[in-house]
Design a protein that fits this description.
Transcriptional regulator, AlpA family; alpha+beta; three-stranded antiparallel sheet; globular; 3 strands
Length: 62
């Protein structure tokens, strides 16, 4: 499996969360923080998003 970085639109699509909800959860420590790619660019490691999806309460209840 390759090391892939996801930009915000990909994270929104994968999680079903909106931009403001993602950043609110980051501020609350409930979502992985992005990695800075440059002065104005960030992305999330695909593995961090996959782990968050696997460990969220709604995923464990199903």
């Amino acid at each position: 499996m390759g090391y892939r970085m996801l930009r915000l639109p990909d994270v929104v699509q994968a999680t079903g969360l909106g931009r403001s909800t993602i950043y609110a959860k980051i501020a609350a420590g409930e979502f992985p923080a992005p990695v800075k790619l440059g002065a104005r660019a960030v992305a999330w490691p695909e593995s961090a998003i996959a782990e968050w999806l696997a460990n969220r309460p709604s995923a464990r209840a199903a």
